[in-house]
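Module 6 notes. Inverse folding takes a fixed backbone as the condition and produces residue identities as the prediction. Think of it as a translation problem where the source language is geometry and the target language is the twenty amino acids. Below is one complete input and output pair. Work through it position by position during the lab.
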């Protein structure tokens, strides 16, 4: 059980049961709003997830089978993004930008904007070190292409800030090399950290803080 600004108590992942899936409906507006905010944080890039990937990630995090089987449709029903393919009916999708919010809402968090308030330059490394096994499992469960999509650490910092954390771009660049094993820098000094690292970083914290 954890406490944080705006949240009296949180369930551990192991305490979340199928009844908690109803929170995806009651907190639908907050999840959708946060997903759109995170879309902006990522430079308006959208990453669509299929059922298999969503279920694999929530299973790896440690949610029960009943929760895992209901989370994909539960978030798609929010219909915060519409996907149109020529010759097919439009459909709602589950994007990466809803992963953290969904995990937090299932754990009982309602104030997503302060959810990671205890995460900062002085605590981030310790928090990930304590949950290194989970972090590594999430890293290994993300689609392989995530290793090769590099975003600036400034983007990563904005993503964390949207959930209430305050980790600097410099610190994230450092941690990406230490925990993610990958970082880039071009001839003009532009830095990059992998999508794989950013996703595993925020999802680990969303599941444990």
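Target side of the pair, the amino acids:
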């Amino acid at each position: 059980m954890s406490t944080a600004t705006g949240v009296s108590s949180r369930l551990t992942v192991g305490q979340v049961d199928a009844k908690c899936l109803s929170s995806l409906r009651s907190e639908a507006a907050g999840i959708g709003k946060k997903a759109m905010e995170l879309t902006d944080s990522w430079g308006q890039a959208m990453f669509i997830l299929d059922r298999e990937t969503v279920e694999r990630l929530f299973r790896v995090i440690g949610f029960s089978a009943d929760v895992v089987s209901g989370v994909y449709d539960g978030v798609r029903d929010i219909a915060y993004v519409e996907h149109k393919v020529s010759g097919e009916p439009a459909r709602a999708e589950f994007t990466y930008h809803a992963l953290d919010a969904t995990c937090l809402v299932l754990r009982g968090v309602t104030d997503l904007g302060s959810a990671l308030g205890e995460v900062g330059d002085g605590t981030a490394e310790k928090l990930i070190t304590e949950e290194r096994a989970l972090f590594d499992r999430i890293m290994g469960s993300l689609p392989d292409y995530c290793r090769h999509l590099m975003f600036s650490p400034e983007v990563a910092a904005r993503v964390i800030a949207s959930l209430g954390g305050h980790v600097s771009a410099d610190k994230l660049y450092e941690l990406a090399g230490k925990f993610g094993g990958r970082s880039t820098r071009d001839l003009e000094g532009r830095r990059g950290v992998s999508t794989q690292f950013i996703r595993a970083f925020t999802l680990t914290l969303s599941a444990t803080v």
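Reference fact for the lab report: The chain has a mean pLDDT of 93.
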